Amino acid sequence: MVAGLLFYGGTLVLSGESELTASDFIGYLILFSQVLVPVKALGGAFSYIQRGLVAGERILKVVDTEPIIRDKPDAHVLPPFQHQIELRNLQFSYGDQPVLTDINLVIPKGKTVALVGPSGSGKSTLADLLPRFYDPTGGQILIDGHDVRDCTIHSVREQMGIVTQESILFNDTIFNNIRFNTEATEAQVIEAAKIANAHEFIQQTPEGYHTMIGDRGSRLSGGQRQRISIARAILRNPPILILDEATSALDTESEKLVQEALTRLMHSRTSLVIAHRLSTVQHADEIVVLQNGRIVERGTHDELLAQAGGLYQRLNSMQTNGMLV
Ligand SMILES: Nc1ncnc2c1ncn2[C@@H]1O[C@H](COP(=O)(O)OP(=O)(O)OP(=O)(O)O)[C@@H](O)[C@H]1O
Ligand SMILES: [Mg+2]
């Protein structure tokens, strides 16, 4: 275009036929070159704006999603946990398919109740009902006699620490991931990490507590991620703990570290623990065996082992024979 302009304008000026003078033409060329860059940028900006609009639409769709679980208009704050959690005639189904039927269970304060059972029997679903990730379709969950559906979600979750196999971590520093949502000081964070057996590996990372851990903690190993989650739970110091499959994907060494951390975390707390490896729940005050969403057996480890032909006994013998470890 520029070559064309130069040629055409140049010819006009040189021939002297038109009224275009050399200075006008040069002025025009300078103006033209000045305008060219911003006009090009404007075109580029337009495509950015388009992309921004599309992305904005998608983000707003997520932001505007109405949560299914909401506070009732007259919801009250759940008072600090004192006596027991009771599941009374609990039923739950995802859509039509019933997943939990007639669950009656009491977890007294300070005790550990373990849930075991085959895959798909409804253990995680049951654990998800306590912090109100879902609400029961029948029956009640009572904490010290308060139906959790009548309490604010915030006040219910505030009293629970949840450690799952899929740790929920953010692309931020280790420090911020542990401190998440609390006003803890650096000393408190380090203290929690020590109890969670995480301090040592954190110190070996390039920037210690200020190392960025990547999306969902992708720069950490599974066991390291879990120990960060455990440190977070320790720091929040909740009276109720929910541990779902917390040690199933680990090698023996990191399982030992995580198990130690969990034992410290569970000390003098009220816990609901789900585990595939029965060895990790042997010391629970009560073990509840679920099958197809129903409680089929319950008791201590020794009581359950004594039940000849029971599901727990079968699961146990499969594991000790190394078939399901
Ligand atoms: N979000 C969901 N929507 C629909 N069905 C679901 C959903 N989550 C789980 N289910 C179904 O509910 C049943 C119980 O699942 P749940 O995750 O509670 O089992 P689980 O006992 O924790 O199993 P695992 O030991 O494998 O973790 C399964 O049949 C599963 O297919
Ligand atoms: Mg599960």
What does this entry look like structurally?
- The chain has 325 residues and is of the alpha/beta class.
- It folds into two domains: 62 residues; 237 residues, P-loop containing nucleotide triphosphate hydrolases (Rossmann fold, 3-Layer(aba) Sandwich), CATH 3.40.50.300.
- The strands form two sheets. A six-stranded mixed sheet has the order 6-7-8-3-9-10, sandwiched between helices.
- β9 and β10 form a beta hairpin.
- α6 crosses α8 and α8 runs parallel beside α9.
- The longest helix has 42 residues.
- 28% of the residues are buried.
- The protein binds adenosine-5'-triphosphate and magnesium ion.
- Adenosine-5'-triphosphate binds next to α3.
Main β-sheet, spatial strand arrangement: 6-7-8-3-9-10
What would you call the shape? elongated
* Oligomer status: single chain
Q: Order of SSEs, N→C?
A: HHEEEHEEHEHHHHEHEEEHH
Q: What is the number of beta strands?
A: 10
Task: Provide a quick synopsis of the model.
The protein is α/β, with parallel strands linked by helices and 325 residues long. It folds into two domains: 62 residues; 237 residues, P-loop containing nucleotide triphosphate hydrolases (Rossmann fold).
List the helices and strands and how they pair.
Layout: H1 2-15, H2 22-63, E1 84-94, E2 97-108, E3 112-116, H3 123-129, E4 138-143, E5 146-147, H4 153-158, E6 160-164, H5 174-179, H6 186-195, H7 199-204, H8 222-236, E7 240-244, H9 252-266, E8 270-274, E9 286-291, E10 294-299, H10 301-306, H11 311-320
Parallel strand pairs: 3-8, 3-9, 6-7, 7-8
Antiparallel strand pairs: 1-2, 1-4, 4-5, 9-10
Helix pairs in contact: 6-8, 8-9
The structure holds adenosine-5'-triphosphate (ATP) and magnesium ion.
Magnesium ion (MG) binds at residues 123-124, 245.
